[in-house]
Amino acid sequence: MRLGTRWTSGDEPPVSLPAAFRDRVRAVDGGLDADPRPKWTLTWLEGRPVAELETGVVVSFDAAGEPVVGQIDDDEF
Q1: What are the pLDDT digits (tens) for 5-54?
Q2: pLDDT at 77
Q3: For residue 72, what pLDDT band results from cuts at 50, 70 and 90?
């Protein structure tokens, strides 16, 4: 079992995440202009990371194993 974590957007994502996944999280963070900065919540579902930002943005892996960005209300999530 892997435990999740929380961190503030703009801070370094957890090193336990694959590099490509961290890059996607950083890309989302780079497009934010919020004060206060929202927080990310990382959970692990079936061994795969899912990072959800308080704004509803979600970073996860698609069926091909590529990190993707979506919204919490998208049909994919």
Answers
A1: 999 999 999 999 999 999 999 999 999 988 899 999 999 998 899 999 99
A2: 46
A3: confident
- Residue type, position 20, single letter: A
CA distances from 31 to 26, 34, 60 (A): 9, 10, 18
With tokens 């079992």, the residue in question is 1
Distances (CA, A) of 51 to 21, 24, 55: 9, 10, 12
Tell me the C-alpha distance between 31 and 43, whole Å.
Answer: 22
What tokens appear for 74 in the block?
């998208």
Can you give the length of the chain in residues?
77
Angle, CA 28 vertex, CA 43 and CA 34 arms, to 5°? 100
